[in-house]
């Protein structure tokens, strides 16, 4: 690993890209600390402490703590992610968008432009609802109001501020992807998640000092964390390779084809989309219960509290459902089989066309079952650690999947740069295969 960093430092272009990426991340973290005007910071902090475990927690995690501070980046990059997911699903449903996506680079640029417009629209709508909601919120136990001066002036200022912040983050991410290293949007989310780690580590040592956690338990916890990270790396890079044989063709006096290849299928084809959707749905009852003081609403909210058996069972059920749903939307075995047939490829022992599509679909279903079990286990891990082992921070879940996945993709890009320039690569003993 040390030799890999030295090789990366010896490449001027790669060194510039890494430096540029860190500078842009620093700009993002500075913006997280700039508050939106008109907010009572102390009342907002008390409100978040009171409403821990609701939908606000997930948004706060993806914004890197910007929502808790209600900074100019309070919306984070979530509107852009939501718009991207919406257009990705619409591409399968709307024929015009599907045809546009197949036009190559120009079509993808057009869809990206539509995604940006949708991001601005979503940011304006979310900014409006957030500003209206904040006007009715106050610190717990009859504390001060969160908004100093309510009215349309505050609402319009909040809408413009939050939308501008999201647009700026979107621009930062695109610049990092183009001029830096790795995927800019993913790196911004990762930076926000990692920024909360020092506080978790400090809280752990504070518990050890207070006697709430034994010193003997710390190395066991560290080994378990490394083991979980290793399992995630294995599953995120694991592939089921279906052998492909291409028929020989004679064009003029030359023979083409006849070579062997493979069709790689990922175990976790859906990535982190299922736990994000499942978390959003499962956090709604707790969020609604914090605002509506009705008996039956409070009872339902208590049954679905984070960590309860019913909550865990429903959470796993939603993850499994979205794993199959998103995989079915984004991966079409019929199209894969048709493309193989058009290019003269076939699976040995399987007839081209319909039979190949059925064979690929059967394998994909089995892989999705394994992937859904793996994602569910990682996402339920924080419940076990916090509830059963009294660990003072959330380890696992969507955040860990994002951090490890982004790290794999980023190291893969660094590896590609070093190998392309005739270096030994980032790692001496092997190659980083990546997730794609």
Number of helices, where a helix is a run of at least 4 consecutive DSSP H or I residues: 18
CATH fold field value of the largest domain: Preprotein translocase SecY subunit
Name the average pLDDT: 79
Q: Could you spell the SSE succession in H and E letters?
A: HHHHHHHHHHHHEEEEHHHHEHH
Shape type: globular
> C-alpha Rg, in Å?
24 Å
Total beta strands: 5
> Per CATH, which architecture of the largest domain?
Orthogonal Bundle
**Adjacency order of strands in the biggest sheet:** 4-1-5
**Fraction of residues in β-strands:** 5-15%
Low-confidence parts, pLDDT < 50 over ≥5 residues?
none
Distance separating the two termini: 22 Å
* Structural class by sheet pairing and helices: mainly alpha
Major sheet details: 3 strands, antiparallel
Question: CATH H level of the largest domain: which superfamily?
Answer: SecY subunit domain
In helices, the fraction of residues equals 55-70%
Total domain count: 2
CATH class of the largest domain: Mainly Alpha
Compact overview of the structure:
The chain has 436 residues and is mainly α. It contains 18 helices and five strands.
Describe it.
The protein has 436 residues and is mainly α. It has 2 domains: 1-195, SecY subunit domain (Preprotein translocase SecY subunit, Orthogonal Bundle), CATH 1.10.3370; 209-395, Preprotein translocase SecY subunit (Orthogonal Bundle). Helices cover 68% and strands 5% of the residues. The chain is built from 18 helices and 5 strands. It has helices spanning 2-9, 12-32, 41-50, 55-62, 66-69, 78-93, 95-101, 105-135, 152-179, 184-194, 197-210, 217-237, 273-289, 295-303, 309-330, 333-342, 354-388, 397-420; strands at 239-246, 249-251, 254-256, 260-266, 345-346. The strands form 2 sheets. The protein has a 3-stranded antiparallel sheet. It has a two-stranded antiparallel ribbon with strand order 2-3. Strand 2 and strand 3 form a beta hairpin. The radius of gyration is 24 Å and the shape is globular. The protein starts with a helix and ends in a 16-residue tail after the last helix. The model has no long low-confidence stretch (mean pLDDT 79).
């Amino acid at each position: 690993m040390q030799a890999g960093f030295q090789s990366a430092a010896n490449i001027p272009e790669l060194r510039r890209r890494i430096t540029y990426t860190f500078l842009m991340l620093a700009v993002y973290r500075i913006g997280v600390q700039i508050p939106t005007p008109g907010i009572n910071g102390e009342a907002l902090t008390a409100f978040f402490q009171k409403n821990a475990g609701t939908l606000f927690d997930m948004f706060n995690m993806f914004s890197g703590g910007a929502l808790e501070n209600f900074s100019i980046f309070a919306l984070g990059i979530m509107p852009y992610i939501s718009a991207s997911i919406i257009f990705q699903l619409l591409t399968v449903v709307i024929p015009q968008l599907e045809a546009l996506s197949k036009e190559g680079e120009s079509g993808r640029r057009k869809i990206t432009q539509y995604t940006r417009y949708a991001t601005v629209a979503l940011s304006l709508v979310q900014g409006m609802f957030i500003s209206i909601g904040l006007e009715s919120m106050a610190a717990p136990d009859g504390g001060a109001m969160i908004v100093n001066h309510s009215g349309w002036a505050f609402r319009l200022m909040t809408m413009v501020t939050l939308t501008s912040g999201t647009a700026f983050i979107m621009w930062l991410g695109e610049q990092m992807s183009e001029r830096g290293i790795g995927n800019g949007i993913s790196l911004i989310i990762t930076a926000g998640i990692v920024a909360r780690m020092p506080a978790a580590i400090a809280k752990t040592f504070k518990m050890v000092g207070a006697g709430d956690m034994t010193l003997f338990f710390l190395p066991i916890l560290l080994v378990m964390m490394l083991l979980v990270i290793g399992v995630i790396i294995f599953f995120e890079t694991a592939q089921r390779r279906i052998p492909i044989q291409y028929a020989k063709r004679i064009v003029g006096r030359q023979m083409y084809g006849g070579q062997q290849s493979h069709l790689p299928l990922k175990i976790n084809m859906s990535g982190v989309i299922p736990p994000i959707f499942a978390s959003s749905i499962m956090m709604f009852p707790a969020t609604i219960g914090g605002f509506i003081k009705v008996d039956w609403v409070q009872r339902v909210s208590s049954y679905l509290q984070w960590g309860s058996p019913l909550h865990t069972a429903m959470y796993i059920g939603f993850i499994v459902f979205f794993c199959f749903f998103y995989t079915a939307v984004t991966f079409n075995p019929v199209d894969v089989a048709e493309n193989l047939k058009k290019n003269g490829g076939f699976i040995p022992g399987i007839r081209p066309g319909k039979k190949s599509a059925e064979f690929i679909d059967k394998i994909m279903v089995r892989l999705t079952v394994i992937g859904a079990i793996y994602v569910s286990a990682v996402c339920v891990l924080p419940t076990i650690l916090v509830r059963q082992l009294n660990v003072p921070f959330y380890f696992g879940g969507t955040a860990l999947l994002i951090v490890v996945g982004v790290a794999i993709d980023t190291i893969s890009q660094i590896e590609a740069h070093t190998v392309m320039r005739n270096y030994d690569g980032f790692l001496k003993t092997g190659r980083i295969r990546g997730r794609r």
